[in-house]
Amino acid sequence: MAKLYFVRHGKTEWNLAMKLQGSKGDSPLLEESYFETALLGERLKKISFSKVYVSPQKRAIETANVLMEELLIKPEIIQKEGLKEFGLGELEGQLILDAIDAYPEQMHHLRNNPHEYDPSEFGGETFSEMIKRSVVVVEEAVMQNPNENLLFVGHGATLVALIQTLSGKPLEQIRKAGGLDNSSLSIIEMNELGYELILWNDTSHLDSLN
């Protein structure tokens, strides 16, 4: 059966500094991230992907390029705006702790209660807006590449919402399983029932580093 593979980009300088990094922010990958992503590429190298769909943000593109170096079969890479990270408006680049001090209720909802999250105070994107644009990318990709393995490279918040929505979770439950680690792998299998989540936030390819 065809499978959809989802990879979160490697850790960046802003991730390390605990800064908010959404659809506008784009700090460089850490040097260690290139090695970690290569390990994931080694894990995936024998899989035949029809296409690779990637966010147009630099950290995602660089992650996809490292993966491509390891794959035995080099699929076409297609950039998709719909895979960009969650838009955080005026909070882009701010320290997470500062954002929590300024908007404690909304920062709590961002992590725990997406159905109650309202970013209008700081000009952010809603979960519904982000889910709509990202789900379209996957549905169109599946329609255009039936019964093919597909790889998607993107961002933490967007991929969490996208994967959980595809697997049938309602908005209020999409954060219940937590977030995604950098350089992690999640897999959805396509079967007669639709989308089935079979692997979530797996980083076993990094076990040798511990």
Topology overview:
Layout: E1 3-8, H1 13-16, H2 31-44, E2 49-54, H3 58-70, E3 76-79, H4 96-102, H5 104-112, H6 127-144, E4 149-154, H7 156-166, E5 185-191, E6 194-202
Parallel strand pairs: 1-4, 2-3, 2-4
Antiparallel strand pairs: 1-5, 5-6
The CATH architecture is 3-Layer(aba) Sandwich
Poorly predicted ranges (pLDDT <50, ≥5 residues)? none
User: Main β-sheet: number of strands, strand sense, barrel status?
Assistant: 6 strands, mixed
On the 0-100 scale, what is the average pLDDT? 96
Key terms:
6-stranded mixed sheet, Rossmann fold, single chain, 210 residues, alpha/beta, 18% strand
What does this structure look like?
GO terms for molecular function: phosphatase activity. One of its GO terms (cellular component) is cytoplasm. It comes from Carnobacterium maltaromaticum (Carnobacterium piscicola). Strand 5 and strand 6 form a beta hairpin. A six-stranded mixed sheet has the order 3-2-4-1-5-6. It has a single domain (about 5-140, about 160-195), classed as Rossmann fold (3-Layer(aba) Sandwich). The protein has seven helices and six strands; from the N terminus they run E-H-H-E-H-E-H-H-H-E-H-E-E. The radius of gyration is 16 Å and the shape is globular. It has helices spanning about 15, 30-45, 60-70, 95-100, 105-110, 125-145, 155-165, and strands at about 5-10, 50-55, 75-80, 150-155, 185-190, 195-200. The chain is of the alpha/beta class and about 210 residues long. The protein starts with a strand and ends in an 8-residue tail after the last strand.
